[in-house]
Amino acid sequence: MSPRFDPVTGRYLRLGIGGREHRVHVEEAGQGIPLLCLHTAGADARQYRDLMLDDGVTDRFRVIAFDLPWHGKSSPPEGWQDEEYRLSTESYVATILAVSEALELDRPVILGCSIGGRIVLQLAADHPDRFRGLIGAQAAAWQDPWYDTDWLHRPDIHGGEICAALISGLIAPGGPPADRHETLWHYMQSGPGIFKGDLWFYRVDGDLRDTIARIDTTRCPLWLLTGEYDFSCLPRDTLATAAAIEGCEVRVMSRLGHFPMSENYEQFAGYLRPILDGIATRDPA
Length: 285
Fold this sequence. Notes:
- By secondary structure, the chain is of the alpha/beta class.
- It has one domain (9-282): Rossmann fold (3-Layer(aba) Sandwich), CATH 3.40.50.
- Helix content is 35%, strand content 18%.
- It has ten helices and eight strands.
- The protein has helices at 49-52, 55-58, 89-102, 115-126, 159-168, 177-188, 194-205, 235-243, 260-263, 265-282, and strands at residues 9-17, 20-29, 33-38, 61-66, 109-113, 133-137, 222-227, 249-253.
- The protein has an eight-stranded mixed beta sheet with strand order 1-2-4-3-5-6-7-8, sandwiched between helices.
- It is globular.
């Protein structure tokens, strides 16, 4: 094959989050309505590689994905060696808002998956006027944990391999094998204890069963999408969450699991593109 560059730009953004200086890696492609993408626990923005290469999206949307602090190419803040990493609802929201403000995004659309899908519900409850649309993939107000996070950070077990092993069953069968294994590779590269720290938000701090009562979809539309093969965020959990939010649109996605944007993008795009089409028609940049 002939050498070529993907039409994706990566840069480091220096900004303050929660009173600490951070250096956050940001990738983007396309132009138009800002679409800010949030990766899953223990992973990074590479999960959105195919979305950034989708001309049917990037011709109208400026697709932006960033690595959370401590993830991917975003280093931990100074002094990280003296603390245990734990993602909280407060710090997660603060990071999203800080990145959006630093990039001067005008009412971006947010697309989040897993922990990113969960935090979308918090944004809908507390900051609806900052966004023109919120899309939560693999999102529900709460799921009872089915895993023991102590396995994810032990000196006698390879951290990357156990993280990938934990999530391997959450990928739907039948998708492209290369995409399946690249999704697993992202988890093999997570920093020590980072996946475990993200799941503290997911299994302890991020219980939003009471929070969703505050969501008003007339102020910001909300979509929830969940893969039929996901047993971490079961379709019934997403459907129950959507039923409790008036005006929330919900889809159970066939042939998809917990990582739809990276495990089988074309299948996911069949659900995502109509939502983005509607946003672009209703509320253009």
